[in-house]
Design brief:
The protein has 276 residues and is α/β, with parallel strands linked by helices. The protein has ten helices and twelve strands. The chain has a seven-stranded mixed β-sheet with strand order 5-4-3-9-10-12-11, sandwiched between helices. Strands 6-8-7 form a three-stranded mixed β-sheet. Strands 1-2 form a two-stranded antiparallel ribbon. It starts with a helix and ends with a helix.
């Protein structure tokens, strides 16, 4: 019987198995091979791990710093993730945009038992990666939506690459331009998605300059819950001097209380007391 099985294998295959598998017992260096079929339906990705869990990283933006950190087994923005873990207490966390889910395992595995993470990613490619990241880690407390957040329900165009072909990855943005590569996306308001019986403790936006429209669509939730706001404020888009922000957010008692990574932390006495 053994002779019969051996005879079914070509000599080259037997030598390969003996040299590469049987001697070592396992394959030590997996190699990423890009898909031979290039179409919009085939997701090209690499699975990587760090101390919080596993991630489905998009191969199209493998050179981006956040992807490189994960591929090396590190945590991207560890201080931001730790701040959210330390301050969310019993409430839910809103996190947008999700990208491939680089924040999700760290947050979802360390919030209270009944809390949820509400996260949003409008890009089809990155949404699918974030979805797989949730599956890898079995994150049942994450509510992932393939939409962007804005002031009202609408359809927009998301720039995913520059005119010279550079992929934007996590820096994909909604801008008024004809240059570059764009994909159509759907916009929803946060207020239309978050049920009124959910208590939001932290709202973290990394929306590449689209924070004000997203905050406008979340104003009822903000007024109701007074969550900690963690906003990435770009130098050319100073949210803090925006008239709407001053009239509708700062008027609620919010003030800048710190920075973490490239994010500005904005809190009220309400959530400071609630978190004490």
């Amino acid at each position: 019987m053994i002779k019969l099985v051996k005879s079914l294998f070509p000599k080259k295959l037997k030598k390969f198995i003996k040299r590469k598998v049987l001697k070592k017992g396992y394959v030590t260096k997996p190699v990423h091979i890009t898909s031979l079929i290039k179409d919009e339906f085939t997701l090209d990705c690499t699975i990587a791990y760090n101390k919080y869990g596993g991630y489905c990283t998009p191969f199209s933006v493998q050179k981006e710093s956040v992807v490189q950190a994960i591929l090396k087994g590190n945590v991207y923005e560890p201080e931001t993730i730790q701040y959210i873990i330390d301050h969310c207490k019993n409430g839910d966390v809103v996190q947008a945009g999700a990208f491939f889910g680089d924040f999700l395992p760290g947050i979802a595995k360390n919030i209270s038992k009944n809390a949820k993470v509400w996260t949003f990613e409008p890009s089809s490619e990155y949404y699918r990666c974030a979805e797989i990241t949730c599956l890898i880690n079995n994150l049942h407390n994450v509510k992932l939506f393939q939409v962007g957040l804005g002031a009202e329900k609408s359809e927009q165009r998301l720039q995913i690459a520059t005119e010279d072909g550079r992929q934007l990855g996590g820096a994909s943005r909604i801008i008024d331009s004809e240059n570059g590569k764009f994909v159509p996306i759907k916009i929803e308001t946060l207020d239309s998605i978050i049920p009124e019986d959910r208590d939001i403790s932290i709202l973290q936006f990394d929306l590449e300059g689209f924070e004000i429209p997203a905050l406008k669509g979340a104003i009822k939730t903000i007024q109701r819950c007074k969550p900690i706001l963690i906003l990435e404020i770009l130098s050319h888009n100073d949210i803090l001097t925006n008239d709407w922000f001053k009239e509708n957010i700062l008027s609620l008692g919010y003030q800048i209380t710190g920075k973490v990574h490239n994010n500005t932390i904005i809190t009220t006495e309400h959530n400071t007391t609630k978190l004490a």
